[in-house]
Design brief:
Structural class: mainly beta
Radius of gyration: 19 Å
Largest sheet: 7 strands, antiparallel
Strand content: over 45%
Distance between the termini: 18 Å
């Protein structure tokens, strides 16, 4: 059975025309990517089953990642700058097979949550809404 280790995966964001690693990423999650469908309910159907077929659109879903947050880091500043400027941003996730496998996407929206607890390091959770197609490794 083949597998890729998660240790060593790198999240990159495009800053000033170059892809730059985001420091201190703890987790990355892709969710909600799907080809959209439409429901068909023909009046002459012979059974009660609803028919679903592709409508030709794909929703890229959302990408969430957790950080050990440090507002002095350039990459972390770029995230909050993109949030306040509402700018779209290009991203890549480089897998652990030497960088030959990557998932790339553009974010059209950014959500940012900062978590401060007395017993832990300051953390942030960032949610990106993919715009257009996510390019998955194939």
């Amino acid at each position: 059975m083949g597998y890729l280790k998660s240790k060593g995966v790198i999240l990159q964001q495009k800053i000033s025309g170059s892809f730059t690693a985001v420091a201190q990423v703890e987790s990355i999650s892709f969710s909600g990517a799907q080809s959209e469908t439409m429901e068909l309910r023909p009046l002459d159907a012979t059974d009660a089953g609803v028919i679903h077929i592709s409508n030709g659109w794909i929703d890229g879903g959302s990408i969430t990642f957790g950080l050990l947050y440090d507002s002095s880091l350039a990459g972390h500043k770029a995230i909050t700058t993109a949030l306040s400027s509402m700018a779209s941003t290009d991203w890549k996730v480089l897998h652990t097979d030497g960088g030959s496998t990557a998932t790339s996407f553009t974010s059209g929206g950014i959500g940012f949550n900062e978590e401060i607890q007395a017993i832990s390091a300051i953390r942030a959770n960032v949610t990106l809404k993919a715009t257009g197609l996510v390019t998955w490794p194939t």
